[in-house]
Specification:
single chain; mainly alpha; 4% strand
Length: 166
Protein backbone atom coordinates (compact mmCIF):
# COMPACT_ATOMS: atom_id res chain seq x y z
CA UNK A 1 0.00 0.00 0.00
CA UNK A 2 1.29 3.43 -0.95
CA UNK A 3 -0.14 6.55 0.63
CA UNK A 4 0.07 9.68 -1.46
CA UNK A 5 -1.00 13.25 -0.96
CA UNK A 6 -2.95 14.41 -4.00
CA UNK A 7 -4.50 17.77 -4.81
CA UNK A 8 -8.26 17.97 -4.24
CA UNK A 9 -9.01 17.86 -7.95
CA UNK A 10 -6.81 14.83 -8.66
CA UNK A 11 -9.01 11.72 -8.57
CA UNK A 12 -6.97 9.41 -10.73
CA UNK A 13 -3.56 8.68 -12.13
CA UNK A 14 -3.67 9.58 -15.82
CA UNK A 15 -0.37 7.86 -16.51
CA UNK A 16 -1.51 4.50 -15.13
CA UNK A 17 -5.23 5.06 -15.87
CA UNK A 18 -6.29 4.17 -12.33
CA UNK A 19 -8.98 5.69 -10.11
CA UNK A 20 -7.14 6.36 -6.86
CA UNK A 21 -9.86 7.91 -4.69
CA UNK A 22 -11.04 4.70 -3.04
CA UNK A 23 -9.61 1.83 -1.01
CA UNK A 24 -8.69 -0.04 -4.20
CA UNK A 25 -7.34 1.37 -7.44
CA UNK A 26 -9.82 0.80 -10.25
CA UNK A 27 -8.56 0.46 -13.84
CA UNK A 28 -10.13 3.05 -16.15
CA UNK A 29 -9.31 1.56 -19.53
CA UNK A 30 -13.05 1.10 -20.18
CA UNK A 31 -13.95 4.60 -18.93
CA UNK A 32 -12.32 7.14 -21.29
CA UNK A 33 -14.87 9.81 -20.31
CA UNK A 34 -13.52 9.73 -16.75
CA UNK A 35 -9.99 10.29 -18.03
CA UNK A 36 -11.21 13.24 -20.13
CA UNK A 37 -13.01 14.73 -17.12
CA UNK A 38 -9.79 14.57 -15.10
CA UNK A 39 -7.86 16.32 -17.86
CA UNK A 40 -10.43 19.13 -17.89
CA UNK A 41 -10.21 19.43 -14.09
CA UNK A 42 -6.41 19.60 -14.27
CA UNK A 43 -6.72 22.49 -16.71
CA UNK A 44 -9.36 24.19 -14.55
CA UNK A 45 -7.27 23.79 -11.38
CA UNK A 46 -4.44 25.78 -12.95
CA UNK A 47 -6.78 28.78 -13.27
CA UNK A 48 -8.90 28.51 -10.11
CA UNK A 49 -7.88 28.21 -6.50
CA UNK A 50 -11.36 27.22 -5.27
CA UNK A 51 -11.49 23.94 -7.17
CA UNK A 52 -11.94 21.89 -3.99
CA UNK A 53 -15.02 23.85 -2.93
CA UNK A 54 -16.49 23.65 -6.43
CA UNK A 55 -15.94 19.88 -6.62
CA UNK A 56 -17.41 19.32 -3.15
CA UNK A 57 -20.44 21.42 -4.04
CA UNK A 58 -20.89 19.72 -7.42
CA UNK A 59 -20.70 16.30 -5.79
CA UNK A 60 -23.23 17.36 -3.18
CA UNK A 61 -25.62 18.75 -5.81
CA UNK A 62 -25.35 15.61 -7.97
CA UNK A 63 -25.97 13.51 -4.85
CA UNK A 64 -29.07 15.53 -4.01
CA UNK A 65 -30.26 15.22 -7.60
CA UNK A 66 -29.91 11.44 -7.35
CA UNK A 67 -31.80 11.31 -4.07
CA UNK A 68 -34.66 13.63 -5.01
CA UNK A 69 -35.20 12.99 -8.71
CA UNK A 70 -32.91 13.96 -11.52
CA UNK A 71 -33.60 17.21 -13.33
CA UNK A 72 -31.59 15.82 -16.22
CA UNK A 73 -31.76 12.18 -17.24
CA UNK A 74 -28.27 10.74 -16.79
CA UNK A 75 -29.36 7.35 -15.49
CA UNK A 76 -28.39 5.49 -18.65
CA UNK A 77 -24.84 6.86 -18.62
CA UNK A 78 -24.38 6.14 -14.93
CA UNK A 79 -25.78 2.61 -15.23
CA UNK A 80 -23.52 1.96 -18.21
CA UNK A 81 -20.47 3.24 -16.31
CA UNK A 82 -21.37 1.23 -13.21
CA UNK A 83 -21.57 -1.90 -15.35
CA UNK A 84 -18.12 -1.15 -16.79
CA UNK A 85 -16.75 -0.41 -13.30
CA UNK A 86 -18.17 -3.59 -11.82
CA UNK A 87 -16.64 -5.65 -14.62
CA UNK A 88 -13.28 -5.24 -12.81
CA UNK A 89 -12.66 -7.52 -9.85
CA UNK A 90 -11.03 -4.65 -7.90
CA UNK A 91 -14.33 -2.78 -7.84
CA UNK A 92 -15.93 -5.48 -5.67
CA UNK A 93 -13.70 -4.33 -2.81
CA UNK A 94 -14.77 -0.68 -3.22
CA UNK A 95 -17.76 0.81 -1.43
CA UNK A 96 -20.97 1.46 -3.34
CA UNK A 97 -20.59 5.17 -2.59
CA UNK A 98 -17.14 5.26 -4.21
CA UNK A 99 -18.41 3.36 -7.27
CA UNK A 100 -21.29 5.82 -7.65
CA UNK A 101 -18.90 8.76 -7.29
CA UNK A 102 -16.74 7.30 -10.05
CA UNK A 103 -19.79 6.71 -12.27
CA UNK A 104 -20.94 10.33 -11.85
CA UNK A 105 -17.46 11.87 -12.00
CA UNK A 106 -17.66 13.30 -15.56
CA UNK A 107 -20.92 15.09 -14.72
CA UNK A 108 -19.52 16.29 -11.39
CA UNK A 109 -16.55 17.75 -13.28
CA UNK A 110 -18.85 19.56 -15.75
CA UNK A 111 -20.93 21.01 -12.92
CA UNK A 112 -17.80 22.10 -11.01
CA UNK A 113 -16.59 23.83 -14.18
CA UNK A 114 -19.89 25.72 -14.49
CA UNK A 115 -19.80 26.68 -10.81
CA UNK A 116 -16.34 28.21 -11.27
CA UNK A 117 -17.05 29.64 -14.75
CA UNK A 118 -20.76 30.50 -14.92
CA UNK A 119 -22.16 30.87 -18.45
CA UNK A 120 -23.35 34.40 -17.67
CA UNK A 121 -22.25 37.39 -15.66
CA UNK A 122 -25.78 37.92 -14.36
CA UNK A 123 -26.04 38.69 -10.67
CA UNK A 124 -29.66 37.60 -10.26
CA UNK A 125 -29.80 33.96 -9.01
CA UNK A 126 -32.73 33.16 -11.31
CA UNK A 127 -30.91 34.38 -14.41
CA UNK A 128 -27.75 32.57 -13.37
CA UNK A 129 -29.72 29.38 -12.70
CA UNK A 130 -31.52 29.50 -16.04
CA UNK A 131 -28.30 30.17 -17.96
CA UNK A 132 -26.54 27.32 -16.15
CA UNK A 133 -29.37 24.83 -16.71
CA UNK A 134 -29.42 25.79 -20.39
CA UNK A 135 -25.68 25.15 -20.59
CA UNK A 136 -26.06 21.81 -18.77
CA UNK A 137 -28.74 20.80 -21.29
CA UNK A 138 -26.40 21.71 -24.13
CA UNK A 139 -23.38 19.90 -22.70
CA UNK A 140 -25.27 16.72 -21.84
CA UNK A 141 -27.55 16.83 -24.91
CA UNK A 142 -30.53 16.32 -22.58
CA UNK A 143 -33.36 18.54 -21.48
CA UNK A 144 -32.83 19.90 -18.00
CA UNK A 145 -36.21 19.80 -16.28
CA UNK A 146 -36.05 23.00 -14.30
CA UNK A 147 -36.95 22.27 -10.69
CA UNK A 148 -36.97 25.92 -9.70
CA UNK A 149 -36.56 26.85 -6.07
CA UNK A 150 -36.29 23.21 -4.94
CA UNK A 151 -33.28 22.50 -7.13
CA UNK A 152 -30.04 22.32 -5.09
CA UNK A 153 -28.33 24.20 -7.92
CA UNK A 154 -30.75 27.13 -7.62
CA UNK A 155 -30.35 27.12 -3.83
CA UNK A 156 -26.57 27.32 -4.28
CA UNK A 157 -26.91 30.41 -6.47
CA UNK A 158 -29.17 32.03 -3.89
CA UNK A 159 -26.68 31.35 -1.09
CA UNK A 160 -23.87 32.60 -3.30
CA UNK A 161 -25.66 35.94 -3.66
CA UNK A 162 -26.69 36.06 0.01
CA UNK A 163 -30.40 35.58 -0.75
CA UNK A 164 -32.92 33.11 0.61
CA UNK A 165 -34.51 30.73 -1.91
CA UNK A 166 -38.09 31.79 -2.57
Amino acid sequence: MVITLSPAHQHLCLRHRLWTRSTQDIPLTRLPEVLQAQRRLDHLARRHRKIRQALDLARKIVGEWSASGMPIDLGKEWTDRLDRIEAHSASKKVSVEDRHHLAAFPEIAVLATLILNPPTTAVDPKELYLATTTELSRRFARIYTTLGTHDPLYQHFCRLRGERPQ
